[in-house]
Amino acid sequence: SLVVLFGATAGAYGAKLGSDERELILLVWQVVDLHSKKVGTLHKSLVKADNLDLSDQCREVSGLTAEGLGKAEPLDRVLQQFSQLVSSDLKVLGRSSYTLCSDGQLLIRQVLHPETSKKNFLLSDCFYSFYDLRKEFHTCYPSSAAVKDQTIKTMAEYLGLGTDEAEEDFGVWQVKTMVAIIFSMLSEGCNHIFTEPETVKYKYETGPCSKSETVDSETVIRARGLPWQSSDQDIARFFKGLNIAKGGVALCLNSQGRRNGEALVRFVNSEQRDLALERHKHHMGSRYIEVYKATGEEFLKIAGGTSNEVAQFLSKENQVIIRMRGLPFTATQEDVLGFLGPECPVTGGKEGLLFVKYPDGRPTGDAFVLFSCEEYAQNALKKHKEILGKRYIELFRSTAAEVQQVLNRYMSTPLIPTLPTPIIPVIPPPYTIATGSIRDCVRLRGLPYTAGIDDILEFMGDATGDIKPHGVHMVLNQQGRPSGDAFIQMKSADKAFMVAQKCHKKMMKDRYVEVFQCSGEEMNFVLMGGTLNRSGLSPPPCKLPCLSPPAYAAFQTAAVIPAEAAALYQPQALLPTTRTPQASAAAPPAVTYYPAQAAQLYMNYTAYYPSPPVSPTTVGYIAAPPGAVAAAATATHTPILPQPGALVRMQGLPYNTGMKEILSFFQGYQYAPDDYNGLIQLSDQARSVLQAPKEWVCL
Q1: CATH superfamily of domain region 441-532
Q2: 308-411 sits in which CATH class?
Q3: Neighbour count for residue 104 (Cβ, 10 Å)
Q4: What is the pTM of this model?
Q5: E strands, 328-481, where?
């Protein structure tokens, strides 16, 4: 038997059903016996939504009112009545089992499953299997319209069914017409058989992913804006009703190994992916989640792995994975098992532990643990920040993809050799950052995060011709992503004024952008980490007193420009000024290399990190060709610092800190040998910093 089901929400109707997260307000159904071709009673039930504010389209199409819905039963009671009435009708027809049949997949996948998941009650098993009438109709009548273009009305017209929609109540006509279509498909000329129902997965299945797998780009999406503590199960719940591939949730990590609020999700087919895209800006708790298309290559980069050890660890299916961070380097498997205790037994004992190590076998302090059920995992999470040895241990929910990412990050990073290849920042061709009080710049605030330089040029319109070469500066945040701000250098203050007047609060994509006129000095303050607001200028931290140690003088030198195609120079405008000019003359020059193709850049897409301040020259790095380094060395006859910016400053040290404690603090990192100071000619004032008990400058 089939139970023909039709429903409507308080919002969008038709192809956009469920895309606006509006609640279900109507269910209409009728039982159909496929063998005897008899039907049961037609039932119509209104559903009381939490929000009774109906959209204009809903009121126009359905004729329902908020007053009428206010007297209805809530969804959980309606679904109970549905099960009872269907069972009663089946007994009358002499049947015991049934499968749902709906007009398309939206009612089941995009409305019922997401709404019941948010309201925390379970759907009965019958809602995990259903027939899509549109697909069955196209199978029976291949010459009919494509499945995505089918509607109840077009199917009825194709069969020549003379039904008048205006004669029946909303929902009743749809169910009666669907029943008539089914009987036509069962007629002697067609003899259609319903054999392969659509299925909805009960739960998300974890599992490993190999880099050798082929992932169809039409099945992958990127979810952005996730709470940092969300797990793969939380993401699967957000996409409830859609079938995610096994091991198809990959939480993305930032450069520090922490979650960045993004995830790549792989679905079983492109149809499920397209439905997932309709959940753009749906909510997870109080946060809305952005959903975009992604590629299979991106998914494999995050979730794919090659380690046999990881594959064996993740081969135990349906396990809950917990990540432990901050373990003592001397911790053993027995120590971890003892820390977790008997109340949260690890799956397989020692086999359920995976320690993360560097390529040379040194521990990183991270480990992953498998638990067979949610109860054991919850008991383990209660030990968050408890002490093991002399350290507190952090515990988080994790995923198979996160295991792969963490292992890939540590295992693919080569150990730093004793004499590394010089790593030199990529710098665009020489240009001048505006300075002074002339207000010939504009600041764009509130840009869409997806906006690029092309979008800004289009936004500027005719004023694009008045932009100085390399005059567009995109401001990135600490994670290297657009911050929503940009600065533009115009050819004159008048041009900047005209742009600010013309483009202020003009729309770019779906956001309005604020445009303010500013000076080169104000622009530099913001780009170097300061703030510019109604209260005036707040200088960047690198410009504040006592934050620029004299050792910076080692990097302040004149530019080195050999007669090669590669350009070598030091951009003075982007580095803090030194307080010890007497040391500059003796200091060796820093060597900066950029490839020839960099000279073709029209606009400067510069990554400035306002907080904390970081020299823009330390953003992207490539290895300088040996010839370029050798040419610079020959020209200056002085030792070359392999990597500008190799100094770090430590503040807040205990007064009794010695060299041993500092080296222990930086365990795991390659630091310069004792005689490395010979490469930098430091002034006496600079050397005093190295010997101070409170502050240290480390190479």
Answers
A1: RRM (RNA recognition motif) domain (3.30.70.330)
A2: alpha beta
A3: 20
A4: 0.56
A5: 353-357, 363-371, 386-388, 391-398, 423-425, 441-445, 467-476
